[in-house]
Amino acid sequence: xxxxxxxxxxxxxxxxxxxxxxxxxxxxxxxxxxxxxxxxxxxxxxxxxxxxxxxxxxxxxxxxxxxxxxxxxxxxxxxxxxxxxxxxxxxxxxxxxxxxxxxxxxxxxxxxxxxxxxxxxxxxxxxxxxxxxxxxxxxxxxx
Length: 143
Prior knowledge:
alpha+beta, 27% helix
């Protein structure tokens, strides 16, 4: 009997198997559900408040007073190592007095980044410098 396959080979095979089984949206087999897509944000200003509606009946609000930039904060639960599970991504309005949270944390960074981009666009606030650098590492730069 030969040596056991390495974990890396098994992992690669599992990933390829998963990719082969994925179907484009709208081409699911009976009983399958389409993969969940991210929210379609609608961001607007209402009497000094930033309002973000996620298109699924969820609304997030935060006062704009004193805010000077938009920030996305990774919530790592104190474990900053690469393999750590993320506790989510918090979008905030930052000021000298502290951050104002815009709703509950989001599950993935893409959704948080898109929400932050839209808030910057609507409020004309800049994206926080650390947030810019964090997202520039994934090939995206938000101004």
